């Protein structure tokens, strides 16, 4: 006959195992529900890729850094492309727009492949069940590794060049090497720097002086400031300058006219002097005519002297003496009247 205590122990053990199994089942269901979100309503979507880069069924779909769905199925198309069917949670549907794009990315640098949804404008309509996304070309991990390898080669080449430059500097080659090795060159450089520093100070002083001069010119009451700010003075100056320009132009035209007149007089003089038929030319070139003119002038002078003598003789003649006395009295009276009027 079985021991009652032994039967109770067996029953307790069986109950304990059943309880543990129920707990494990519940935990598994909750875990699967958390990981796969099996109890959440979803909508279907798809996209066709040239290559999925190792994407498999069950991989995640991400939008704005948040997991919003999973890959349901991967199929080949007749044109050797890959169609990926995936589901998206309906709670994320209003935020994903129809102008968004998808690409195959990775969860981290070397993580699992994922489908990444990006882009979309607020004014676009939200996606619907069965929506086909446009595919954005993605950089594959192999391309990234190839780029990294090329960059490593470039860095290695740069390092080799840097080593060569440092070796040349240590050997005293090149400008920097000579500067480090040659003390005389270093001293000359110091002198040059001192000269440049002195010139800089002088330039700074000149700039300060120019600034002070500018401040003085801009001060109220200054002539330059008055010209720049007085609305009446500037037009007057402008008119004066215009008048000076007009006067200068008139003087210039007058000078040109005077020069032309001088040229004309010179030409006329040359014509008169060089033309023996003109009166002046006859006087200058014909000695006979000149002598005749001299004799005529001499005769005129002699006749004038004789005429003066005759007039003087007439004054003393008793027939004309009274006439000349009356003329003298009238002349004296006119002078006296003129003097009296002048004194009044």
Give a verbal description of the structure.
The structure is a single chain. With 344 residues, this protein is an alpha/beta fold. Among the domains are: 32-140; 159-229. 63% of the residues lie in helices and 14% in strands. It has 9 helices and 8 strands. The protein has an 8-stranded mixed sheet with strand order 7-1-4-3-2-6-5-8, with no helix packed on it. The longest helix has 42 residues, at 233-274. It starts with a helix and ends with a helix.
Strand percentage lies at 5-15%
Q: Total number of β-strand segments?
A: 8
- What class do helices, strands and sheet pairing give? alpha/beta
**Share of helical residues:** 55-70%
Low-confidence stretches: none
Largest sheet: 8 strands, mixed
Run of helices and strands: HEEEEEEEEHHHHHHHH
Number of helices: 9
Morphology: rod-shaped
Give the SSE layout.
Blueprint: H1 4-36, E1 42-49, E2 60-63, E3 66-76, E4 82-89, E5 101-106, E6 113-118, E7 131-132, E8 134-135, H2 141-170, H3 174-181, H4 183-218, H5 223-229, H6 233-274, H7 279-285, H8 287-316, H9 321-343
Parallel strand pairs: 1-7, 2-6, 5-8
Antiparallel strand pairs: 1-4, 2-3, 3-4, 5-6
